[in-house]
Amino acid sequence: MEPEAGNGNGSSVVKTVIWLVVLILIVGGLVVYGNKGGEKKEVVKEPIKIGVMVPLTGDAAVYGEPARNIYSIAVEEINADGGIDGRPIELVIEDSKCNGKDATSAAQKLINVDKVQVIIGGFCSGESIAATPVATEAKVALFSPGSSSPDLTGISPYFFRNYPSDASQGKILAEVAYGKGWKTVGLLQEQTDYALGINKTFSATFEALGGKLVKEETTSSNTDFRSQLTKLKSAKADAIFIDTQTPALSERIFKQMQDLKWTPALIINDATAGDTKTIAAYATLLEGGITAEFGVDTANPKFQHLLSAYTAKYGGTELPYQSYGQTEYDAVYMLKDAIASVGYNGEKIAGWSRTVKDWEGASGNITIEASGDRAGGHAAKVIKGGKVELLNS
C-alpha cells in the first residue's frame, strides 16, 4: 500500500521542529554557561566590611543598643543610594561590654577573622584605650563616636574620634562649680577610664582655682554606697559630684541619697545628664544641679532627619542620648567619604581622618586635629524641672 499523501512531508516537519528545539537548547545552554563564567555575567560586588564595637550587655547596653540602631539606619541609607562605588556596606558587630578585656577580644576577632580595615568604636573609653594597641599593630583605623577620655588624645595615629575629649567637660564643670562659690566638692567616682578622665581634669582645674576635693571611689557592681555617702556628708562639702560611667549606677546612688534624706547641691557628668528618664525620675534631688554636655543643634537638618528616621524605624521611640546619636550617625557617613576618597585601607583611612576640616554632619561642623581629637567641646548646663538646659539660658 502506498503511503497516504502528505505523510513524508509531515515527517520532515517533525524532524525540523525537533532539530530546532535541540538547537535552541544547545544555544541556551551555551548562553547560560557563558553567563556563568564569561563577561556577560553581572558581577556582584563584594560588600565593604566595617567592624563595630559596642556594649550590648550590662549597664552600658543603654548606649550600645541605640548606637547599633543608628549605625543600621545610616548603612541602609547609604546602601540604598548605591553604597560606596557600587559596593554595599556590611556591619560586623561585636559586644565589647564596656570593658577593656572584651574590647580587646572584639578587636582581635574583627581584625583577624573578619579582616576589617576600620572599626567604629569603642563607645566606652576603656574599650578604646584597650583596643587601640591591637588596631595600631594591625594598621587598622579605630574611629570612636563616643569615647571621651583625655587619655585617648594622641594615643595613636590609627585612633580618632568625632566626640570631644572630656578635658573640656571636666574643666567647664570645675569652673562653674567654683564660680558658684562651692569651695569644697565631694567626689564619688566610679572606677572606669571614662569617669577617671573627667575626674582628672575636674580635680586639676578645681584645685588650681583654690578649691578642695574630698574623694571616694566605687566599683561598677556596687549596690551599697552608704559608707561613701556618709563620709562625703560628714565632710560638709558645698556640692557632691556623682561621676559614673552609666546612669544605672547614678540611679542607685540617688536612691540611697534619698533614703538618707540628704539633698546636697549636685554635679553630674554627661553620661547621666543624657538619660532623660533618670533626670525626670530624680527631678527634685537634681534640681539646680550642674552638668556639661556636648550639645545638639535641633535646627540642623541632618540631625532632624536622624530624629525622624529613628522614630519611624523603631516604632515611635524617641532617639535617646542624642549627643552620642548625632556623632554615631556621622561616623558611618564620614567613613563612607573616607573609603570613597582613599580606598578600603586602614592606614590610609587613619591618615584621611587628619585631613578632615569643616565636615558638615548631624553633629555640626567637624574638624579632626592632628591628635585625633575633634575640635570643640562641651557646654555648661543646669537641671531645672526634670530637664537639662543651657546654663543662664
Describe this protein's structure.
The structure is a single chain. With 393 residues, the chain is an alpha/beta fold. The chain folds into 2 domains: 48-164 and 297-377, Rossmann fold; 167-293, Response regulator (Rossmann fold), CATH 3.40.50. The chain contains 14 helices and 14 strands. The protein has helices at 7-37, 61-80, 100-112, 125-138, 166-179, 193-209, 226-234, 247-259, 270-273, 276-281, 283-286, 301-313, 322-342, 346-353, and strands at residues 48-54, 89-95, 118-120, 141-144, 159-161, 184-190, 212-218, 239-243, 265-268, 290-293, 359-361, 364-366, 379-384, 387-390. The strands form 4 sheets. Strands 2-1-3-4-5 form a 5-stranded parallel sheet, with helices on both faces. The chain has a 4-stranded parallel sheet with strand order 7-6-8-9, with helices on both faces. It has a 3-stranded antiparallel sheet with strand order 10-13-14. It starts with 6 loop residues before the first helix and ends with a strand.
Which key terms come to mind for this protein?
five-stranded parallel beta sheet, Rossmann fold, single chain, globular, 2 domains, four-stranded parallel beta sheet, 14 helices, 393 residues, disordered N terminus, alpha/beta
Decide which structural class fits the backbone.
alpha/beta
Under the CATH scheme, the architecture of the largest domain is 3-Layer(aba) Sandwich
Total DSSP helices: 14
SSE series: HEHEHEHEEHEHEHEHEHHHEHHHEEEE
Question: How would you summarize this macromolecular structure in one to three sentences?
Answer:
With 393 residues, this protein is α/β, with parallel strands linked by helices.
